[in-house]
Specification:
279 residues; alpha+beta; five-stranded mixed β-sheet; 6 helices; 20 strands; globular
Length: 279
C-alpha cells in the first residue's frame, strides 16, 4: 500500500513557450489529499485528466471553458515521475515554459521543494486483462503487472533510426535515466515550422536538432530521442488520474495515441478511477 504525496513547498519557474515564444510562468503549489494534479489559468481550473485534452498535434493541450494550456506534458511528467500525487499548477501565459526541452529543471525544483507524504491511500490503476489501442503501425498496449514498467520502441527517419528503452518507472530511474532527455526534431522540420510562424521559442538551447549528418549538439545518451518519448508518455499517462500499476508497451506512439489510450482506460474503468471535480 502506498500513500498520496504533495510538495512540501511551492516552486516557481519562468521562461518562454516552445511553440509561441511567449513569456510563460508557472507557480506550483502543494495541494490537499485527493486534489490530484490541477492547472489554474485565467481563473479556470483544469484537472490533469484525459477528458480535458483538446489538442495533440505538436504537444498535449488541455482546455476548459475557453481557456487552454499548451505543452503540459513535461511538467506533468516531472510531477508524476517523481511520485507527486497532488499539486496545483498556476499558469501565466499560453503554455508551460520549455526550460531546456526536458523535465530536468522541473525535477530539480521538485527536489528543492521536497515531497511530503499525506494520510490518504494513493489511487492506482490495476488492469486485470490486456488492452490496446492502435493507429496504423502505432500502438499502445497495457498489460497487467506487479510494477509500473514502460517498454518503448521508436522508429525514426535517419539519422536517428530505431531505438528502444525498457525500465521500471521508479522516481530514481525517472530522475537519472529519463528526466534530462530533451525534445527533438529534424533541421528541415524546424525550418519549415519557423517559416509557418511556429516553434517561435525553439533554440539549440532547448531542443535537440538533427541535421542530415547527425545531431547538432552533444547528446546526453546515444538513445536520447526514445528516452524523451518515454518522458512524453509519462506526462500523458499522468492524465489517467491514478498510478498505473501495469506494463505499457508503446510502439511508435505519440501524444495522440497516448491520450486516446488514457481516455479509453478512463471510460473502461471510470468507476474505479478519480472523477473530475472542478470548481
Amino acid at each position: 500500500m502506498s500513500y498520496q504525496t504533495t510538495l512540501r513547498d511551492r516552486f516557481v519557474f519562468e521562461g518562454v513557450g516552445l511553440h509561441t515564444g511567449a513569456p510563460c510562468r508557472i507557480d506550483v503549489l502543494p495541494a490537499p489529499p485527493n486534489a490530484g494534479l490541477r492547472f489554474v489559468a485565467g481563473g479556470v481550473e483544469i484537472p490533469a485528466l484525459a477528458e480535458y485534452v483538446v489538442e495533440t498535434a505538436r504537444a498535449t493541450v488541455l482546455g476548459r471553458n475557453g481557456v487552454t494550456i499548451s505543452t503540459v506534458e513535461h511538467v506533468l511528467a516531472a510531477l508524476f515521475g517523481m511520485g507527486v500525487s497532488n499539486a496545483e499548477i498556476r499558469v501565466e501565459g499560453p503554455e508551460i515554459p520549455v526550460a531546456d526541452g526536458s523535465a530536468k529543471l522541473f525535477v530539480d525544483a521538485i527536489e528543492r521543494a521536497g515531497v511530503a507524504p499525506q494520510n490518504e491511500v494513493r489511487d492506482s490503476f490495476v488492469p486485470v486483462a490486456p488492452s490496446f489501442v492502435r493507429d496504423g503501425d502505432r500502438s499502445v498496449i497495457v498489460l497487467p503487472s506487479a510494477h509500473f514498467r514502460v517498454r518503448f520502441i521508436a522508429d525514426f527517419a535517419p539519422p536517428i533510426g530505431t531505438q528502444y528503452f525498457d525500465g521500471e518507472m521508479t522516481p530514481e530511474l525517472f530522475r537519472e535515466e529519463i528526466a534530462s532527455a530533451r525534445t527533438f526534431g529534424y533541421l528541415h522540420e524546424v525550418e519549415a515550422l519557423l517559416e509557418r510562424g511556429l516553434a517561435k521559442g525553439g533554440t539549440l538551447e532547448n531542443a535537440l536538432v538533427f541535421a542530415p549528418d547527425g545531431p547538432m549538439q552533444e547528446m546526453r545518451w546515444e538513445n536520447e530521442p526514445v528516452r524523451h518519448k518515454v518522458l512524453d508518455l509519462l506526462g500523458d499517462f499522468a492524465l489517467l488520474g491514478a498510478y498505473p500499476q501495469c506494463e505499457i508497451v508503446a510502439i511508435k506512439s505519440g501524444h495522440k495515441l497516448h491520450c486516446i489510450a488514457t481516455n479509453e482506460l478512463r471510460r473502461q474503468f471510470g468507476s474505479a478511477l478519480p472523477s473530475a471535480k472542478v470548481q
